[in-house]
Write a structure and sequence with these properties.
Elements lengths: L4 E7 L2 E6 L16 H17 L21 H6 L4 H14 L5 E3 L8 E3 L6 E3 L6 E3 L1 H12 L2 H25 L6 H26 L8 H16 L1
Antiparallel strand pairs: 1-2, 3-6, 4-5
């Protein structure tokens, strides 16, 4: 669920949006830590959001979703230490941005931007300021990396990625999107490591001691760089 737009108007060159109160709709819970069931709820929300906007020609939002993509993070890129990841940053960025299958990504799909229902398995999302085109796995990587620690990623990542694609397939059917899902899954699965590497590139320039940086992120980056070298 997303909050409905109730009204909008401009005031002194500022746009004002009046949105539905999610607390009043039953989504009162905010969480600092996610259980595995919470993570799966988030994956379901992302999968249905991504399916809803697959392959649509939307021009009135950001041309590229998320807040960390390379074109908007040149200062962070400039201060990165030299190395393989910095050398490959433009190629990684291009691979993600030029993927055949594109959708809208939330762009800041962290736990703090999800509102949980108290008595149902419902979930609502807020903070859509970074919505734009992209591959769905960019949201997935960001969400999993924020909800799970390194050990949890090692133990559960594969099953959660499989969960995402299984739900995405159902959502594509639900919205009656005419695409070759096998091709989509193959492309986005290939780009999953690229999304990890792309976010790692941002963190190394922005906050190289960030708590999200771990050996799992580094391993996924190595996979992405290896695939680039073979292309």
């Amino acid at each position: 669920m997303v909050p409905k737009l109730l009204a909008e108007f401009s005031d002194n060159q500022q746009q004002v949006l009046v949105l539905q109160d999610l607390d009043q709709q039953g989504f009162r819970l905010r969480k600092n830590q996610a259980s595995m069931s919470d993570v799966k709820l988030g994956i379901k929300w992302l999968a249905y959001f991504h399916a809803r906007f697959l392959q649509q020609d939307i021009t009135d939002l950001w041309p590229i979703g998320t807040y960390w993509y390379l074109a908007t993070r040149q200062e962070e890129f400039d201060v990165m230490q030299p190395g393989r990841l910095k050398d490959a940053a433009k190629e990684l960025d291009a691979a993600l941005n030029n993927a055949h299958f594109q959708t809208l990504v939330h762009g800041d799909a962290k736990l703090a931007n999800f509102c949980f229902a108290e008595d149902t398995a419902g979930l609502a999302a807020v903070d859509f300021q970074y919505v734009g085109k992209g591959v769905g796995v960019k949201d997935l990587v960001y969400f999993l990396g924020g909800c799970l620690n390194q050990d949890e990623l090692v133990n559960h990542e594969q099953s959660l990625v499989n969960e995402y694609f299984a739900v995405l397939k159902k959502a594509v059917g639900h919205y009656q999107i005419e695409i070759d899902f096998i091709d989509l899954q193959q492309e986005w699965h290939e780009l999953y490591a690229f999304a990890w590497a792309d976010f790692y590139r941002f963190l190394l320039g922005w906050s190289p001691d960030h708590y999200k940086i771990n050996t799992h992120m580094q391993k996924q980056t190595d996979i992405a760089l290896s695939r680039l070298s073979k292309q």
